[in-house]
Amino acid sequence: MAGVAGLACGLQLQKAGVNFAILEASDGVGGRVRTDEVDGFLLDRGFQIFLTSYEEAQAVLDYSALDLKPFYAGALVRWNGGFHRVADPFRHPADGVASLPNPVGSPFDKALVGLFRIKALLKSPADILQAPETSTLSRLQAEGFSADIIDRFFRPFLGGIFFDRGLNMTSRLFEFVMRCLATGQNCLPTAGIGAVADQLAARLPPGSIHTGMNFF
User: Where is the Amine oxidase domain (predicted)?
Assistant: First the structure.
């Protein structure tokens, strides 16, 4: 499989001096991390975003060659017929203050987001992934967040990341992602998300990737 995990595995085998072959059923590398060019437009497959703070990505990718373009650190939340901005107050202080009275959550909720961010930054990724776990919904409720901000912000936001609008995923992953969002940038490569897989594939030995393989 020539998805990102398979390509990264190939890099490790190459580093260890082990001969290998990667077999891929489709006509190219990347799996779900792939970009198609249609009539001059670059179309990423599915919802894609690149977080620069992923430690494994930092270890195996050349960020400068990807020419990463950052997104605004915030979101527009659709509620009651209007859009309401939610901004990272540490990166966009003025927008953060301006968002305090909007209906996405109370000012207290937004202060809790800042406090949660600070607490996450005080922990290492290893500490977070080894911490006692519960569901993300239970964790949000235990932190004191209101039903309004959970339903209007966290549920659609985290539901889009984890494909779980019930917020049943482990609180460890929730805190890990929140830490990544706080320490890095949300970006896309200039050539689309497929550039990540293309860069990994280009570093593997010629002839080690075989596409169009029919297994059945």
Answer: 4-212
